[in-house]
Amino acid sequence: MEENKINKVLVDNLVTIISNNTAINSYLKLNLNIFLNYYQKMLKNCHILNKFDSIEKLLNNANNLEPDNKICVRENYGGFMNHLYFFLSLTKKSLINKDGQLYKDIEEKFQNYNFFIDIIKKKAKRLFGSGWIWLVSHKNELKIMVFFNEDNPWHKEYFPIIAIDLWEHSYVEKFLSKDDYIDFIFENLNFQFIEEVYQYYLKNNKIFEITKYKLI
User: Are 161 and 198 in contact (CB under 8 A)?
Assistant: First the structure.
């Protein structure tokens, strides 16, 4: 993974992030500098992790690790991947691809696109504490899933498609409600990226490794 490419995407998309300070401090400084360095350090020093060549595969196998490694992987690498996917799935202005397979499958599964967003809003209101809401694909079926703290679809071997950060610091300073925040996310959703991810799942039936994704 090339750090400078990730940084460029974040800089280009800063206007879509909840606040500039949050983006710079929690993502660039914390996620990249700590999580990536920690990941490399663990690969080097912990024999059991050496067999995994991506963070996605590591998270897929987190439940099979020793207890200390399991907790560390779920919290640190889980947090890194959640934020990485979240940032990549935002853009300056969303252009909904109504001809794309994902949009069609969302309409088929959830009656229509707006009703799909309403379901997410209802689940968000029921979430107490910190966590994430994801649209995932599992056995060729779309599902809306709630994950607490830094748990995520990779832990469950689900295919992640859309991520919404519901940690309080993501929205409380700028938005009056979770509904307003979620509307903002969908107004700035990078359909080109998530459609590419979804098409990969449909074609290959395996995890799309975003840590190897060529951003530019």
Answer: yes
- Distance, CA of 186 to CA of 119 (rounded, Å): 13
Whole-angstrom distance between the N-terminal and C-terminal Cα of the chain? 12
Which single residue is written with the structure tokens 């832990």?
Answer: 155
Q: Dig out the tokens for 100 from the structure.
A: 């794309």
pLDDT of residue 39: 56
Q: Rounded distance, CA 109 to CA 116, Å?
A: 9
> Token digits for 72?
């560390």
Tokens standing for 43?
A: 């690969």
The residue with tokens 């107490």 is 128
> Three-state DSSP class for 135?
strand
Block mean pLDDT (10 aa), the chain, length 216: 44 43 41 53 56 79 82 77 80 80 96 95 89 93 92 90 85 82 87 92 88 54
CA angle 63, 79, 135 (to 5 degrees): 80
pTM, two decimal places: 0.79
- Name the DSSP letter for residue 206: S
The number of angstroms, rounded, from the C-alpha of 94 to the middle of its chain's C-alpha atoms is: 17
**Integer Cα distance of 29 and 25 in angstroms:** 5
Q: Dihedral, CA atoms, 188, 189, 192, 196, nearest 10 degrees?
A: 160
DSSP state for residue 213 in the 8-state scheme: -
Residue for token pair 């794309």 = 100
Give whole-number Cα distances, 13 to 10, 16, 94, 156, 164, in Å.
Answer: 5, 6, 12, 29, 16
CA distances from 68 to 35, 79, 184 (A): 17, 17, 38
| Count of C-beta atoms within a 10 Å radius of residue 15 | 11
